[in-house]
Design a protein that fits this description.
Elements lengths: L1 H6 L20 H16 L6 H23 L23 H18 L12 H28 L1 E2 L2 E6 L6 E6 L3 E2 L8 H9 L47 H20 L3 H24 L11 H24 L7 H8 L1 H9 L2 H7 L10 H4 L5
Antiparallel strand pairs: 1-4, 2-3
Helix pairs in contact: 2-4, 2-7, 3-4, 4-7, 5-7, 7-9, 8-9
Protein name: Heparan-alpha-glucosaminide N-acetyltransferase catalytic domain-containing protein
InterPro entries: HGSNAT_cat
Keywords: Membrane, Transmembrane, Transmembrane helix
Length: 380
């Protein structure tokens, strides 16, 4: 995520896809949700007291949500903007950490309360594994059906919004013509409509990725000036971590949880690798097929094909890392990734949210431009 934020504007190939399709950057967040699910299988391997476990899960999710609200709600501004502070009326309510908190909480509650109790640690066959965790799988299926029914069945009416002209306080009202069902374009999809209705358009992300599309940027796939014939929705806020799309994020986390269950209940390398590889390949194949048949991969909508492709790819990467580290024993090569994994939240907060750059620029010699960044050849 840090690489995408800092380099994505220079190298579009690793930046987020403007709308349909996927790039390298679009795999990062699902991979994180996937491994959160895997880790929850270990965290709740034994639950002696369901009430206490539930309280801890709720408290942990609440802390993460609040951290996300502070970091991504609008308080931390760009490095050279000294007007710090946030207007509560316009604070962004959702974000990366908030979505992780929601997915974590739902999947943790599923692991605490929905698995079928059985004696013994090991499970001898796939049938027993499915029987023990079939309720969790049913939750995932219900979420997928809900998402598809709402996305393709909900009527999206015409809507409008106000936008302030650059360099002035003049407000313009733009009207977006919709009146459709099942549209998955930037302006008339059910995902955006639900966020505008539930969260309020003033609480959505104001720099949506579709600003880099050809319709909205003369420098596409980079951000640029609006074309003269730009659609009216180009300047509208849109949250890539919204309400409806979070249902599929939960599904990604639930799939990771099932991968974690294989580690818990099967001890031989061959058993684990087979039970990871086959579902991952099936998901990847299903996702690519859906994309080819018109259900396009789309991170902003967190579409079903996107969920299948990214989660299937995450499962296969997991198999490769397991083969290298646990089977072949190349543990030294994985040490940097292990260290970053253990301190992921701290690194994200300090670097991606500009706290470290702000602190570094705060130390200078005589004049602010003579700061530490200039000393190491980064600053100007």
């Amino acid at each position: 995520m840090i690489l995408v934020d800092d380099v994505g504007g220079i190298v579009p190939a690793i930046s987020h896809s403007p709308w349909d399709g996927v790039t390298l950057a679009d795999f990062v967040f699902p991979f994180f949700l996937f491994i959160v699910g895997v880790s929850l299988a270990f965290a709740y391997k034994k639950v002696p007291n369901k009430v206490m476990a539930t309280k801890k899960a709720v408290l942990r999710a609440l802390k993460l949500f609040i951290v996300g609200l502070i970091l991504q709600g609008g308080f931390f501004h760009p490095l050279h903007d000294l007007n710090y502070g946030v207007d509560i009326h316009k604070i962004r309510l959702m974000g990366v950490l908030q979505r992780i908190a929601i997915a974590y909480l739902v999947v943790a509650l599923c692991e605490i309360g929905l698995r079928v109790s059985s004696g013994g640690g090991d499970i001898g066959c796939d049938y027993m594994l499915i029987r023990r965790y079939h309720r969790q799988m049913l939750v995932g299926l219900v979420l997928v059906v809900m998402y598809l029914v709402i996305l393709y069945g909900l009527y999206v009416p015409d809507w409008g919004y106000e936008v302030t002209s650059p360099g002035s306080t003049v407000k313009r009202f733009l009207q977006v013509k919709c009146g459709v069902r099942g549209d998955t374009g930037p302006g008339c999809n059910a995902v955006g409509m639900i966020d505008r209705s539930v969260l309020g358009i003033q609480h959505l992300y104001t720099r949506p990725v579709y600003l880099k599309t050809k319709q909205c940027s003369m420098d596409s796939p980079r951000n640029g000036p609006l074309p003269p014939d730009a659609p009216s929705w180009c300047e509208a806020p849109f949250d890539p971590e919204g309400v409806l799309s979070s249902l599929m994020a939960i599904v990604t986390c639930l799939i990771g949880l099932q991968i974690g269950h294989v580690i818990i209940h099967f001890k031989k390398h061959e058993e684990r690798i087979v039970r990871w590889s086959i579902p991952s390949l099936c998901l990847l194949t299903l996702g690519v097929s859906l994309h080819l048949f018109g259900l396009h991969m789309n991170k902003s909508l967190y579409s079903l094909s996107y969920t299948c492709v990214t989660t299937g790819t995450a499962g296969l990467f997991f198999v490769v890392i397991y083969l290298l580290v646990d089977v072949k024993g190349y543990k030294r090569l994985a040490f940097p990734m292990e260290w970053m994994g253990k301190h992921a939240l701290m690194i994200f907060v300090l670097v991606a949210c500009n706290i470290v750059p702000v602190l570094v620029q705060g130390f200078y010699w005589k004049e602010p431009r003579n700061n530490l960044l200039k000393l190491i050849g980064i600053g100007g």
